[in-house]
Amino acid sequence: MLLFNKAGFILSSTNKAYYAHNVNEPDESLSKNLSAVLLDLQKNTDEIKLVQVDGQPYFAYASRDKEDNIYVALSPFWAIFMRRFLWIIAIFMALAALEIWIYYRQKHALKELSARDMSILQAMAFYFEGVYVGHVNKDEFEVLKADHYYEPLVEQHLTQKEIFAHMATEGVATESREEFLQAVSSENIKARLDASQGFSINTLMQDGHWLTLHFIRSKDYDINHTFVFFVENADEEMRKRKALEDALEAANKATVAKSEFLSRMSHEIRTPMNAIVGLNAIARNHISEPVKVEDYLGKIDASAKVLLNIINDVLDMSAIASNKLKIAKVEFDLKAVLNAISTIYYTQCEQKGVRFIMDVDVKNELLIGDSLRVNQILMNLVSNAFKFTDRGGTIAVRVKENRREEDTVFLQFQVSDTGVGMGPEMLKRLFKPFEQESASTAKKYGGSGLGLSISKNLVSLLRGDIAVESEKGKGTTFTVELPFKTTGRSSEPIDKEKLKKVRMLVVDDEKSAREYTGMLLERIGVKYDLAISGVDALEKIRAAKAAGKNYNMCLLDWKMPGLDGVAVTKEMRKLVPAGMMIIIASSYDTSEMEDEAINAGADMLVSKPLFQSTIFNLLVQMLGGEFGLRAMPFSSYDFTGHRALLVEDNPINSLVARELLRMVKLDCDLAENGKEAVDKFNTTAPGTYDLILMDIQMPIMDGYEATRAIRALPRPDGKTIPIFAMTADAFTEDVSSALASGMNGHLAKPIDVAKLYTTVAGVIWKDKVPKA
User: Fold this and answer.
1) Residue 643, by phi and psi: left (phi above 0), alpha (psi -120 to 50) or beta?
2) What does the alpha-carbon distance between residue 452 and residue 333 come to, in Å, rounded to a whole number?
3) Which of 302, 349, 501, 548 could crosslink 354 through cysteines, CB 3.0-4.6 Å?
4) How far apart are CA 506 and CA 521, in angstroms?
5) Which range among 141-150, 277-286, 329-338, 564-573 has the greatest average pLDDT?
6) Which residues pair with 51 in a beta bridge?
7) CB neighbours of residue 367 within 10 Å
8) Exposed e or buried b for every residue in 433-445, given b needs 16+ CB within 10 A?
9) CA 135 to CA 758: how far, in whole Å?
10) Cα gap 30→33, rounded to integer Å
């Protein structure tokens, strides 16, 4: 007995070997001969025919139902012929009756699923890995489509329990096996389908794939207890679920980290704020004691800068997170960046009792890139090293040229310390925002936990790499490699021919500093001798004088054991009153010994680290006879007879700016908004103002509009007068907006006094300003 649909798919058969086969596609189980007989019967229904099936004669009968399904009965001819004729008729009738009974029974079972339900099941067979009809009270399956895990078991005629047991052993992953067997047990299926319309389970297979098993009640489940069982590939679903779980876990961790960060930030912000507010109150009570007031103001200034750094870190992190941080590509001098870092940390390290070393070996000092971000990266790394290195330790900053590709140079910046170091766990999460090694670390050393995360993001934005090596108790080394475009020219042109007759004496107690300076001198072709102390230097000068080979220049360190730079200079001038240029080099603030150095006979003060261009400039000035101190304190600025237009709407900011300008004798007029600034400039005679300092966010007319309006005025100085933004809008895009509106530069608030005076001097004195 066979039942197949109009597509040829065998839905039922007394011979289970034919299940799930197609009469249109003969195979090992369904022979070509039987397939041809069935296809012929499909065309000639309601007839009794004698047919040959695999060499044996059969009586065959076929009928068609309303759904166009074909029911076929096959009875062996010889089994009937061997009995009496009447018995043949009786048996035939009995068989016919039996087959008709089976026909109606199967037809009834199949009709339990409506024509619509059957269409849905057949459609689902294309979507799902496997589709089966099961029975809660019977240990068997009806297969509509076999998945590749079940397909090898079809021929074995296993029961439902045997199939599931085999799949659990051979297909399901060990960790999912127990859950799988419990879920597919007859008891569980019945209990769950009795209570609901269906249920699903996810199972991990041994090959790494995920399957979802769906058990759905049939329409007449309460009568016949049949259910449909679907097998679906769940790899994508589980991937998404895992991604959601990971995202949720990350979000929870981020929430905890941010909560801890806010707690730390509250402490970090309140600490300098407490100092600012408290010292301000104390200073008011000591107005008549200038020394104390000056000390209090210095501490207020330091606390304010700490607070500013915290705010900048938070703003930078926000800009990075929102993808609003822009990278500049402008020419800058690497020497200026490294000098700034050296100036800040040499003094701080000396006060703390930490040795600070900076070695620089680069041929290209003029680069194209974002100097602000390079400075920020290095300041974060050095600040971190300073924070975690105790008295007696060492911090080293080393810069070298790694390689060059056409017009791109790759510089390696290495910041190492002998501080507390980090463990392996901390190294894994080092560059995540808000992270510190432990609560005790945050409590002891402070900090927002943002500096290294910002540095990592800035390095990525600059298309560089950052790596870290650290060992608990031994220290940490950060290595950053950044690419820069070169300008194709050096800081100063070098004419080695003019320098062949120059002899220089280098005096430094630090071996690495002597060797580094010697390397630079060799590179530009200058003959030199090295002295390890002041006493050694004096001996070498006496010997040179006696041999008639005097030195043209002496470059000596300020801080040396025994005789320091100033003391050595006094002794040198006794031996060589003139004809030898003496330069004192220092990593510290030179203003405190400036007068003493001049009086001792020094010609110039320079800052470490030394660069090739720095030494060349010294030689050029020596050969040209132009001597003078390079360091310039605030008190040296005098802009008497010059005037600026200050555009500022905030009374406090206006007061601060005017007072700072008054301190260097620069007169200024005030405009409280952009419109007033345009009118004031337009109604004054050309040459009245040397420059304009312009706020950006103001009522009536902002700084950008005012600048464009001034540039558009029908007077020649409108297009040439220097205009500088002086604003709290301090991101790179704000600098770009200022330049795009027609401004000449940008000064960020809070005002960096040294930068303000240098900017003003650059406008008023122009070529007279000494280069750093």
Assistant:
1) beta
2) 24
3) 349
4) 10
5) 564-573
6) 58
7) 22
8) bbbbbeeebbeee
9) 91
10) 8
Nearest 5 degrees, angle CA 185-CA 205-CA 148? 85
Q: Does residue 36 surpass a pLDDT of 70?
A: yes
Contacts of 567 (CB under 8 A, 6+ apart): 534, 600
CB 224 within 8 A of CB 111: no
Label the pairing between strands 581-586 and 553-557: parallel
d(CA 293, CA 283): 5
What digits encode the pLDDT tens for the residues 306-356?
Answer: 677 667 766 666 666 556 566 778 888 888 788 778 767 777 788 888 988
Burial of 712 (0-12, 13-18, 19+ CB in 10 A): exposed
How many Cβ atoms are within 10 Å of 713's Cβ, its own excluded? 14
Residue linked to tokens 């261009």: 613
Q: How far apart are CA 264 and CA 434, in angstroms?
A: 9
Which structure tokens are listed for 259? 């909560």
Q: Six-digit token pair at 440? A: 């005790």
Contact in structure between 709 and 678 (CB atoms under 8 Å): yes
- Residue 378, classified by CB atoms within 10 Å of its CB into exposed (0-12), middle (13-18) or buried (19+), is buried
Query: Rounded distance, CA 583 to CA 627, Å?
Result: 10
- Any idea what DSSP says for residue 636? G
**Main-chain dihedrals φ then ψ at residue 502, nearest 5 degrees:** -80, 135
Q: Determine the length of the chain.
A: 772
Comparing CA positions, the residue from 745, 742, 756, 738 lying closest to residue 658 is 756
What is the SS3 assignment for 437? coil
- Which among 669, 670, 703, 710 has a CA at the least distance from the CA of 688? 669
The candidate with the shortest Cα–Cα distance to 373, out of 490, 464, 478, is 464
Express each pLDDT in 582-605 by its tens digit. Answer: 888 877 656 667 778 888 888 888
Give the position of tokens 């009937």: 80
Tokens of 30: 């369904």
**Who has greater pLDDT, 167 or 263?**
167
